[in-house]
């Protein structure tokens, strides 16, 4: 059997926001609920708004504590990545806000959500939830992305989809995100590693996230048996939901 | 803080006309609760409450801290509720609106000040260390009656939660990991819940478990905190026309029935979750514990 | 029937799934945009150096008659005003020349001219107050960053309330549905005259309710693309309120659950029975 699958995503778990999604990561156990309101007016931020574009607000709420520095830090990462792909000049969006709220409802180990621990293990779950929520709110984007976490053990072995324990024991941990065209969008690393290791991590992450056209068209079986790629998983999640919602179109 | 979008005149008038006839938008009776679903997450103290289209998640957590200087025998218990844009587009992240302090105040009164959680039992070593229990309420969907939903979430969470075991040995506090010793439930002294009514038509009509639109059309709310024994631990009525004493008394007996009914639902949910856990072998911890006792 | 094409932002629309290029220009709906192709990797690409790329996730829908392509997106999204849409707007306040209206909550107000009503003059214009509702058409959405949405309850060319029914909505009740459901309801009501039998976009709720509630005097309905449905049963006498509530519950039900036409009819029958309207 393949290693554990990519986790469970569901769209529109809540009613009020314009778009929402939950995502549960099977290995780390993180369960994140994301909600997007867009485009809406941000009355209190009127003077801080960009005149020609939408303003992206990201808010990360931890499960059992008040938001603090760690959350502010990941919010920054999310804002940079998502801000680059959201088309904030599309009709209805300039001078409005895209408000993204992510609540971590359940976090792997209780230790992992404690203060001072690494945020990298949580980052892929946050990024995927954010993307799913933005898709469900139909916020226009130039592309989508997929992301994964990779741990490197002290002996140099590469672990794909590490558990919290794997990440704790690793020499270095890397989170990479790739655009739907296979371009590197984000890399965040922690620990000590050399450039060769990073190159290896990058290549491996690319095969996990992004299915190259040649491989999908080729001999059918992909060499690295990592379940489906993140890209395929994402597309299937969207197809399932949209296909169900528009079932009457096919009747 | 922006407010919920105001109701149109048509909506307000219609809701009032309907209430006068005893009809509600979702077809409920005036004293009827919306469908309530209580479910639990993988971790202890993780509760999902779904009340009609209002939903929230409450998380209970524990950590060891130093007791307050003036109360060396008491542990600490806090309720943290922050409304985010997830629950309603009218709520802004990082900014407190009017609703948040009000709801927090009522929850504090009904649950914390009524001593539902026995804080003395949280003391580990007098004046040195104690448990600090924190209840986080994440409102995920807001369609009225936040107070009752949050109360249900917190009370169910407190009953579901298991904290790690801790002992004092030679003046040293040892906290056992969940794998080492069976985590212990919290000491709940009584199970109070809030019951929120909304008043209409100069206080002549009283409606239970209002939706967001009904809340907006109403004159004000009437909140009662009651436990299963019928002890009234909180009553508030801050706005709207006066409600006569008889109404208040009849409502309080309605409230008592509601509390019994909801507590019954919480008990049922707790039991089925426990059974589920036992089946899934999540009770392995307890088996390991038994082995140790035998050995 | 061809396999459905699901799109994610950044995906190219396969050129063989677009309406064949004829003399008429291709019309792109929201969620699609035209990009010039800079790096042509695949060799079998169309001779044109442009590609159509999705910006929103959804199902590709093409209309051969109108030579149009659009994306059917997640139905719960927020409404964004598009010219010619019919919406139900709520008056927020009025100024010298305009009524400032709320089309979607927590979004900037849309403008409705004080004289943009059928037969309105300075003396005969409707005196609308805060909280009143109007059924209006989106006249323009403006361009650029400071664009304001303008509404009208009259066709500026003819001076008539076209299509019929535009103008203030008095009495009744408004129910909220998702933008996707509103679009389906609207399509259904505009096509219902032609073929009563087939459900349009899988919805039979309005036809069914129309039949069942005929005996109590029927009802009036206005569907706004912004996810609002106005219902009035004022002919219903004693059962007017219960009938309105029943219609609202049916609308909420089809919005929350994806029901087949048969299940919709069953659910409607159940709700009418619960509301004691099954005479």
Give the helix level of chain B as a range of percent.
Answer: 25-40%
Major sheet details of chain B = 6 strands, mixed
Query: Could you tell me the mean pLDDT of chain C?
Result: 87
- CATH level-1 class of chain B: Alpha Beta
How would you name the CATH homologous superfamily of chain B?
A: GHMP Kinase, N-terminal domain
Arithmetic mean of pLDDT of chain B: 92
Number of helices of chain C: 4
Main location (chain A): nucleus
Subcellular location (chain A): Nucleus
GO molecular function, one term (chain A): RNA binding
GO biological process, one term (chain A): nuclear mRNA surveillance
Summarize the structure in short.
In chain A, 29% of the residues lie in helices and 25% in strands.
Write the layout of secondary structure elements.
The complex is a heterotrimer of chains A (251), B (295) and C (279).
Chain A: E1 8-11, E2 19-24, E3 31-40, E4 55-61, H1 69-85, E5 97-106, H2 123-136, E6 145-152, E7 158-160, H3 164-169, E8 172-179, E9 184-191, H4 195-209, H5 213-217, H6 230-245
Parallel strand pairs in A: 4-5
Antiparallel strand pairs in A: 1-2, 2-3, 3-5, 6-7, 6-8, 8-9
Chain B: H1 9-20, E1 36-40, E2 46-51, E3 54-65, E4 76-81, H2 99-112, E5 123-125, E6 129-141, H3 146-160, E7 162-163, E8 166-169, E9 172-175, E10 184-185, E11 193-200, E12 205-208, H4 212-217, E13 220-226, E14 232-236, H5 245-280, H6 284-294
Helix pairs in contact in B: 2-3, 3-5
Chain C: E1 6-7, E2 27-28, E3 32-36, E4 50-54, E5 58-63, E6 68-72, E7 86-94, E8 98-102, E9 110-113, E10 133-140, E11 150-152, E12 167-169, E13 173-176, H1 179-191, H2 205-212, E14 220-224, E15 228-232, H3 240-256, H4 261-274
Parallel strand pairs in C: 2-6, 9-11
Antiparallel strand pairs in C: 1-5, 3-4, 5-6, 7-8, 7-10, 8-9, 10-11, 10-12, 13-15, 14-15
What can you see in these coordinates?
The complex is a heterotrimer of chains A (251), B (295) and C (279). Chain A is α+β, with helices and mostly antiparallel strands and 251 residues long. Helices cover 29% and strands 25% of the residues of chain A. The longest helix of chain A has 17 residues, at 69-85. Chain B is α+β, with helices and mostly antiparallel strands and 295 residues long. Chain B has one domain: Ribosomal Protein S5, domain 2. Helices cover 32% and strands 27% of the residues of chain B. Chain C is an alpha+beta fold and 279 residues long. Chain C has 3 domains: 6-73, Beta Barrel (OB fold (Dihydrolipoamide Acetyltransferase, E2P)), CATH 2.40.50; 86-169, Beta Barrel (OB fold (Dihydrolipoamide Acetyltransferase, E2P)), CATH 2.40.50; 173-274, 2-Layer Sandwich (Ribosomal Protein S8, Chain: A, domain 1). Chain C has helices spanning 179-191, 205-212, 240-256, 261-274; strands at residues 6-7, 27-28, 32-36, 50-54, 58-63, 68-72, 86-94, 98-102, 110-113, 133-140, 150-152, 167-169, 173-176, 220-224, 228-232. In chain C, helix 3 runs antiparallel to helix 4. Residues 42-46 of chain C have low confidence and may be disordered. Chains in contact: A-B, A-C, B-C. Chain A binds chain C through residues 11-12, 18-19, 37-41, 51-52, 85, 87, 90-92, 94-96, 135-144, 179-181, 234-235, 238-239, 241-251, and chain C through 1, 4, 6, 8-11, 30-31, 55-59, 61, 72-78, 80-81, 106-108, 141, 144-147, 180, 199, 201-203, 258. Chain C: Residues 172-235 form the K Homology domain. Chain C: One of its GO terms (biological process) is TRAMP-dependent tRNA surveillance pathway. Chain C: Residues 1-28 are annotated as: Disordered. Chain C: It is found in: Nucleus.
